[in-house]
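Morning run. Coffee first, then this:
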Amino acid sequence: MSTASSNRPRYSSARRVPLGTSGELLYLSGIICADEDARDNIELQTRRVFERISGVLAKHGASLSDIVKTTSFLTDLADYDGFNRVRVETFMDCKEPPASTAVGAGSLLGIGTRVEIEVVAFVPSR
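And here it is:
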């Protein structure tokens, strides 16, 4: 089997699903932080991941307050408290925080990467 990049599975980093005149759902693939200065720092990585998510959402006309569901993958569930502190801060100003699931993943891409987060957002028609 060839491993050429043209034969590898493709994916979208963000996918829009129209919901008629009310708006659309926006699915974001998992986002990580593999920055060397954030290595093994769950709070810094989580903060940066949410900053990156915010940037992707903005490109699609959405914001963090439009997120309806997050799924987070942690390499070690012992990191949950630090992750959760940042998650709570991130959604503090949202009228209604999103539903949230955290899963112990064991390992992620990149040495020192502690968290990966994917989101679903509802983008109302404007």
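DSSP finds two helices and five strands in the chain. Good start to the day.
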